[in-house]
Amino acid sequence: MRLARPLETLIDELMKLPSVGPKTAQRMALYILKASEADAKRLARAVIDAKEKIAPCSNCGYLTDTDPCLLCIDEKRDSSILCVAEEASDIIAIEKAGFNGRYFVINQAFKLMDDNELDRVTLEKFKTKLAAGGIREVILALNPDIDGEVVSRYLSRIAGQYNIKTTRLAHGLPVGGDIEYADEITLRRAIEGRHEF
Ligand SMILES: [Zn+2]
Questions:
Q1: Measured between alpha carbons, how far is 57 from 37 in angstroms, rounded to an integer?
Q2: Which class does domain 63-196 fall in?
Q3: Distances in Å between the alpha carbon of 115 and those of 2, 62, 127, 131, 149?
Q4: Which 3 state secondary structure label does DSSP give 165?
Q5: 56 alpha carbon to ligand 1 midpoint, in Å?
Q6: What homologous superfamily is domain 5-53 in, according to CATH?
């Protein structure tokens, strides 16, 4: 049976979301159709709003609608510890685990890159931050997979050039796993038990 074109389009779009298969997409689409017009419009507007108003913070890379972001302007945070993460979604997990330092988000998919392939702009930003002084520790909170390992080593070498100690999260995080999905307690233990690189 063919579905009405607009319904089909909605299902197709929903299916592009992570973890949404055809059945779930269909259920969501039918739910949206049944919802009140106001609710459906609110959902559509939320998507557009988030897309239009949110961008990486120019200072740390976290997703924000103000620049610099709320984390960067928070004076109660410890500026002497800089936590490097792969993606903004990792920051959400690390925040929940109670970290209270500063962040640097790479926001770049890296695949077994060698030293020269890490985005120049990102790299320059990282170096500028270290050169500005005041940082005594860089925590490398990259995913415990082989790409995270390669980039961690590289960033650790750079931090070494500025005589800044680098630490990495303690083991206990599943190898090949995503920090984003690590549970709070595991992540908090990994931060507390971090050791020198
Ligand atoms: Zn920021």
A1: 34
A2: alpha beta
A3: 52, 24, 14, 19, 12
A4: strand
A5: 8
A6: RecR Domain 1 (1.10.8.420)
pLDDT score of 73 more than 70: yes
Return the residue matching tokens 């685990």: 97
Q: Where are the domains of the chain?
A: 5-53, 63-196
Cα of 22 vs centre of ligand 1, distance in Å, is 37
Instruction: Say if residues 46 and 57 touch (Cβ distance below 8 Å).
Output: no
Under the banding of pLDDT at 50, 70 and 90, the label for residue 48 is: very high
For a pLDDT cut of 90, what percent of the chain falls above it? 62
Q: CA–CA separation, 93 vs 188, rounded Å?
A: 10
Predicted TM-score (pTM) of this structure: 0.76
Looking at residue 187, its pLDDT comes to 79
Cα(155) to centroid(ligand 1), Å: 20
